[in-house]
Amino acid sequence: MPTDPHFPVSHLRPPRNWINDPNGLAYHNGHYHVCFQYNPYGPEHANMHWGHFRSPDLITWEELPIALTPTPGGEDADGCFSGNAVSDGDRMVAFYSAFRTDRWAQPVTTAESADNGATWTPRGRLLIPEPPEGTTMYRDPYVWREAGRWRMLVGSALADGRAAALLYESADLEQWEYRGPFLDRAPQAVAPSADTGLGWECPQYLHVGGRGALIVSTWDPEQGPRRTVVYPGKEQHGRFLAEAPALLDHGPDFYAPALLPATNGRWLLWGWSWEARDPEWVSEAGWAGLLTLPREVTLAHDGTVRQRPAAELLALRAERTVTATGETRGSAVLGTVGPSFDLTARLEPRTARTTAGLRLVTSADGNEYLDIGLDSTTGELVVDRDHASLDPRAHGGTYRVPAAPGVPVEFRLVVDRSVAELYLPSGRTLTLRFYPTGGAPWRIEARAGGGDGLGYTVRAWNLRPYMTRYMDRASAESALIDVGLPHP
Q: Exposed (0-12), middle (13-18) or buried (19+): which is 104, by Cβ within 10 Å?
């Protein structure tokens, strides 16, 4: 098992090699199933299979054998690319993009499991052989059941410069009728240096009580994957009437989220968090990418999508290591945490002019740190990772997420070695990767800006690792392996 100090213990991924998009999310026979794009041969984007985990409780995970494998000479000869899965009676059906290097489109095909995901049988032919006329990109099916029928969205780009999510419908999961674009849009700005893209990957549709939100991952033909955007709105006569788009996650390292409609009307979401370090370091490490924490997603009355960590994850909190309430005009050490922790904070700058916040110090000399500050003039939380690693191969940058100007700010921060997920009460999130070189314990500091006071209330808990039964690659038998290191 990896001894890499950046390898996560409370986020899903196999012990080695490359992963990207979450795929095939389904709740079936009492288990949450989470598949993902997986290269079993190395830490590069190549040889796309579907890896597979399942869990009864979102805490205890079992790695199952690879779900989908390319068929030599077949329709998916060069990769089983992204899609989703549904639970249909006693079977699960996976819908995915069949990739071949000799065609531009990635048409839809399927595979089926009748043994709770242990084995999968591919259909061996395409489900939808040809994309509609006028499309220049076609990939990533998303299938769901609604009002007694099956429905499918496929991500695409159109020849006239619009991105689109195309709608199909079926009575039996076999015969599909094309209904036209569910939503199509020319690129428009959604944030500084971010727009809604020329093409859409991995469309996902969240819908509750007549309202909906279309989630798309924006694609640029020159720059590749960019950001994830959500369009709130509602459906009318097979078309989605969208309101203004917004970023789903405000961080730089979040893409291709996938939805899982779970029990009791709850919706869960996982995203892919890619690496933010140079390729040679990734190659040395032997692994790349991870899946975010499972997030509960809801639609607010104003149409916004709100995210928070799944409630089950509170069970991962171990001992509380920080309990601090007070005020500082400079800096104050609040306590120490291990390399995986869950923190809640309330910050109250005493004047409207200050920029103040928390610092996670990860080196003994204080030269390596991650800053989370409140810009009181703009009402934004600012996450600065320019000093978060002393290794020059780690990427920097400063990122902002709207909070609320003129009032105290609250947030929850979950850090797992090399990933940070920030959650606000508004449901906004910011996900980024960073790579500390200093050994734990790390210390939490409150820091006031410009000599003005900062009031704070901070609590932090070390995180227990997932208990994950990984496949034993040598013997093909599963072995229970705890990937966590002892907390300091």
A: exposed
DSSP 293-351: PPEEEEE-TTS-EEEEE-GGGGGGEEEEEEEEEEEESSEEEEEEE-SEEEEEEEEEESS
Give the Cα-Cα-Cα angle 292, 279, 77 (nearest 5 degrees).
75
Closest CA to 257 of 6, 25, 2: 25
Nearest to 443 by CA among 361, 365, 341: 361
Place 347 in a pLDDT band, splitting at 50, 70 and 90: very high
Question: Which residue's entry shows tokens 């995901």?
Answer: 117
Whether the bond into 56 is cis, omega within 30 of 0: no
SS3 105: coil
Q: Are 271 and 22 in contact (CB under 8 A)?
A: yes
Contacts 24+ apart (CB under 8 A), 363-372: 363/390, 363/436, 363/437, 363/438, 364/438, 368/436, 368/437, 368/438, 370/420, 370/434, 370/436, 371/447, 372/411, 372/413, 372/422
Is the predicted pLDDT of residue 197 greater than 50, yes or no?
A: yes
List Cβ<8 Å contacts ≥24 apart for 334-337: 334/443, 334/444, 334/445, 334/446, 334/456, 334/458, 335/443, 335/444, 335/460, 336/441, 336/442, 336/443, 336/444, 336/488, 337/415, 337/440, 337/441, 337/442, 337/443, 337/444, 337/460, 337/462
Unique residue bearing structure tokens 């410069």: 161
Length of the chain: 488
Can you spell out the DSSP letters for 121-172? Answer: EE-SS-SB-SPPTTEEEEEEEEEEEETTEEEEEEEEEETTS-EEEEEEEESS
Task: Give, for 282, the enclosing helix (H) or strand (E).
Answer: helix 279-285
The predicted pLDDT at position 413 comes to 98
Element containing residue 280 per DSSP (H, E): helix 279-285
pTM over 0.90: yes
Query: In angstroms, rounded to a whole number, what is the distance separating the alpha carbons of residues 204 and 269?
Result: 10
What's the whole-number average pLDDT of the chain? 94
Q: Are strands 17-28 and 287-288 parallel, antiparallel or unpaired?
A: parallel
DSSP output for 412-464: EEEEESSEEEEE-TTS-EEEEE----SPSPEEEEEE-STT--EEEEEEEEEEP
Q: How far apart are CA 353 and CA 356, in angstroms?
A: 10
CA–CA separation, 399 and 408 (whole Å): 20
